Amino acid sequence: MSGITRRAAMAMVVAPVWARRPPLFEQVDLFQQGDGGVHTYRIPALVETRRGTLIAVADARHDSTSDMPARISLVMRRSRDGGRTWSAAVTIRAVPAGGVGDASLLFDARRGRVWCFHSYGPPGIGFGTAQPGALTGPTTFQFHAMYSDDEGATWSPAVDLTPQVKDRDWQAMFATSGTHFMTSGVRFLVPLVTRDGAGVVSSRNAYSDDGGVKWKVGAFIGRDTDESKAVELADGSVLQNMRLRNSKVRAQARSRDGGVTFGPAEPMAALIDPVCNAGLARYRHGGRDLLLFTNAASVRRENVTIKVSADGGRTWSAGRALHPGPGAYSTVISLRDGTIGVLYECGEKSAVERIRFARCSLESVGG
């Protein structure tokens, strides 16, 4: 053959279609201020089911942008085509008084069950107004859970898990919003934020080894650590990435016992952060084993960015900005088809004008 070998010509013919496509990067807005008469939607949570359904849950903050105590409900949208199109928003939990919010989603791969953990604030009660002394009740900011066995079409009644994990001396606690996971040892790990009797705020994990029936709580990770995400590494250890209350960088700590106790929480100078919730996930496709991290990569709530680590979170790529303008909370997941899903808050004048879904290939974010 003239100018080209037969072997090269055959390779060009059989090259997979995806290898010839440009890197994927698509975005769509799911929730926007004013939709459905709701003042503001906040606090993104995202998960993919066994059948590939994407479930996105958010706070519907009916009257203002405020946290609880406020009138807040949980709303959901679903996608069956990888995030290209989405169902209409539906309410999955509302209460007659007080509020529910700060959802986090966890997929139980053994049962195909999706868990939705969230906070319930009785009237007048939020993280800042809750009281010590009771394990649950009208003065306690509560940790609730419900689940779906049918791809999010229906949900179980909510169960109050607070008495299983709260210390009577704690002033308040709540589960970090976003996406959580089940370890290879089938342990559910749900990061908590607690404020003890002295007012010290810290991260720790609630965990269950029996599919969500019985819960325990792990040890204090570090003073002034806050909302956090955890991920299991290839060696079975757990990496916890945390918001720091009095810093403009993230902190990380490592556990050798499944997320119960940790080594020291170490500041990560490469992960600039405006004291905001972030996303963390493990990516395992095509022979790659990486970590994905999303946050507002600035000293202000702006510049929502995705970064990649190839060494278990010790170093991170420069990253790709998903939205350079105002932005805040985010969560990231590795999708079954090898692409990446990110659900995050953003806007033009405010960081909470809308919640946007991004679907991208690893190549498009520098992986």
Q: What would you note in describing this structure?
A:
By secondary structure, the chain is mostly beta strands. The chain has a single domain (24-365), classed as 6 Propeller (Neuraminidase), CATH 2.120.10. The protein has helices at 6-14, 162-165; strands spanning 25-32, 40-48, 54-61, 72-79, 90-93, 99-108, 113-121, 142-148, 159-160, 172-175, 178-182, 188-195, 201-208, 216-217, 225-232, 238-244, 249-255, 266-272, 279-285, 288-296, 302-309, 320-334, 340-346, 354-360. Strands 6, 7, 8, 9, 10, 11, 12, 13 and 14 form a nine-stranded mixed β-sheet that branches. The chain has a seven-stranded antiparallel β-sheet with strand order 1-24-23-22-21-20-19, with no helix packed on it. Strand 20 and strand 21 form a beta hairpin. The longest helix has 9 residues, at 6-14. The radius of gyration is 21 Å and the shape is globular. Mean pLDDT is 94; it is low at 7-13 and 15-19.
